[in-house]
Amino acid sequence: MSDSDSSDGSDDQERLEGPRLWVLLQVNRWLFTATILFAVFAILVATSFLELTPLREIVENQDGIEFLFSAFIGAIITGTSIVVTINQLVLSQELGAVGQQRDRMQDAMEFRRDVESTITEDASPPEPAAFLFELVDGVEERAKELEAEMEDERDEELREKIADYVDDATENARSVKDDLQDAQFGTFEVIWNALNFNYSRKIYDARKIRADHGDSLSEEASEKIDHTIDTLQLFGPAREHFKTLYFQWELINLSRALLYISVPALTVMAIMIMYVDGSALPGSTLGVDNLVWITSAGFVVGISPFVVFITYILRIATVAKRTLAMGPFILRESKRDEDLG
């Protein structure tokens, strides 16, 4: 397929590469949190070397410790309560009468039967990673069947387009399958690899081939294209379902993390207010006033719940933004065809 009719196969991987996305989607959230907190701590300590009013003088004259850390107590309690409340509202969608739960089960089983009609397995796997693996493998098999059907095609341009389309689909499918083999739901690997499979573009390319060469395609070849599109269409709902489950999973983890961190943070805030004043810890260490060390550390502990919240929400928001449209719609920046304008 020419450049004007298909995305480059490398586009599927390039769209999730780059330092910004690597930080947002791949870096461990606790490492990311620790890095941010350390950077804040280093900036606060380094600021003490500037020609500014010494912290000890501010604390002695303006009671800055109490003013600073008392505000954290209300912020931590309020913020944690709001996040936990939002989490409960999201999870409340999982609650329902037995009739609603039965309808959900029937819809899930119907979707599994639809998938099983396109894959080689008689029963689709229950694990999300294995389920997506079999679905992507089904796309690869349908693409190979389409290529085999075109071996005797006399239209050289059509045969070349089909061959390039199949190469692009199989290359992307194999890359995603390799990474899905060891992926475990609960980690980000399942969603990461689901994002790496560019099914929306493949649906468009298959439909474009059929629209441009409908008169040249045999009935069997047209049927193979339809089967490929049908299999690709199943990938979208599967990815969205697992994405929703992942979001719920992460919101639970976020609530638990904030609950674990909030009590120690509140304790540190109370210690700073009750026992630290302008006369505490006289002297300096490494050329920095000891009061600067302890105040900077206390500030970092105070903002730690907020930073944890940021690191979790950044990943959720990034995934949500990149999966806003389901189906043959591409919202992100990508290589455009001449006929897409």
UniProtKB/TrEMBL annotation:
<feature type="transmembrane region" description="Helical">
    <location>
        <begin position="257"/>
        <end position="276"/>
    </location>
</feature>
<protein>
    <recommendedName>
        <fullName>DUF4239 domain-containing protein</fullName>
    </recommendedName>
</protein>
<dbReference type="Pfam" id="PF25927">
    <property type="entry name" value="DUF7972"/>
</dbReference>
<feature type="transmembrane region" description="Helical">
    <location>
        <begin position="30"/>
        <end position="49"/>
    </location>
</feature>
<keyword id="KW-0472">Membrane</keyword>
<keyword id="KW-0175">Coiled coil</keyword>
<keyword id="KW-1133">Transmembrane helix</keyword>
<keyword id="KW-0812">Transmembrane</keyword>
<feature type="transmembrane region" description="Helical">
    <location>
        <begin position="69"/>
        <end position="91"/>
    </location>
</feature>
<feature type="transmembrane region" description="Helical">
    <location>
        <begin position="291"/>
        <end position="314"/>
    </location>
</feature>
<dbReference type="InterPro" id="IPR058278">
    <property type="entry name" value="DUF7972"/>
</dbReference>
<feature type="coiled-coil region">
    <location>
        <begin position="129"/>
        <end position="163"/>
    </location>
</feature>
